[in-house]
Amino acid sequence: MAERDVVITVRDLVKSFRDDAGREVRVLDGVSLDVRRGETLVIMGGSGCGKSTLLNCLIGEYAINSGRILYQTKNMRQPADITTLADAELNEIRKRFGILFQSGALFNSLTLAENVALPLEEHSNVDPAVIEFVVTMKLQQVKMLAHRDKMPAQLSGGQKKRAGLARATALDPEILFYDEPSAGLDPVTSAAIDELMMDLSKKLLVTSVVVTHEMDSAFRIADRMVMLDRGRVLRVGPRQEFEALRDARPEDVSGDADRLINQFLNGYGSGPLTDAEGLSEFEKLIGVT
Fold first, then answer.
1. Do 173 and 100 touch, CB atoms closer than 8 A?
2. What does each C-alpha distance from 255 to 17, 226, 234, 245, 252 come to in angstroms?
3. Could you read off the pLDDT of 233-281 as tens digits, one per residue?
4. Can you list the residues of the chain whose pLDDT is less than 50?
5. What is the CATH T-level fold of the domain 3-96+173-286, as seen in this structure?
6. Angle 216-218-222 from CA coordinates, rounded to 5°
7. 269 class by beta-carbon count within 10 Å (0-12 exposed, 13-18 middle, 19+ buried)
8. Which of 29, 53, 204, 254 has the fewest CB atoms within 10 Å, measured from its CB?
């Protein structure tokens, strides 16, 4: 794979937090992966596996303990390790990606149109007329133009996700990050959001990184998948590899990692995920029961 085909490189990433007793709890334990330009990479795993922590590291929200996170966007002459950058340099790279948060994260005091306009007002010097045109275009892309003057409180959960996606694409990002885009949605609305994500990926030619535990959604949208467990990467591969593991009978699956993945993908009540004694240290920390 040519270096120019990789937009994010993660190597040996370690992230720890301290629990109430002051002990250091390792949440990400040597994570390594690549995000290829133009693909949709789905990061999945059970509660407490580290997937949301990984996303927050990728966007520069969390300082890491060790490792590297290299970005190679189209306007960069060489890769840059965001873990070593000053805030001003990191913010320049952040302009190249958009984020759809789990709740939509809209500002309740602003209308939908004002929410979408905010990134343009904060990070560009274009005329108000141009901002108005871009807002109209972005809302039209997510089929929310008719709701432009509504407040977030007037929107349904699915509409908030669409609105958040319009705002995330306001600056024509090269990379889109999604944090549990299907969370809290009914199956029909979830499928509609997935279709919208795939449609925008094709139209905008963006790279997408999606954190989810919704398997129906994951298999609809993914080009490649990453399975995490207890802060470690169990497998990275094309969707077809995971489909084969999902469809295999448990008795035909060999290897601890693959048996765990088979159980997770199918939601079986028994297997290595549930047969293991006790909780991981991170699961104890976050109160998973």
1. no
2. 30, 17, 11, 12, 10
3. 999 999 999 999 999 999 999 888 999 999 999 988 888 877 654 444 4
4. 277-289
5. Rossmann fold (3.40.50)
6. 135
7. exposed
8. 254
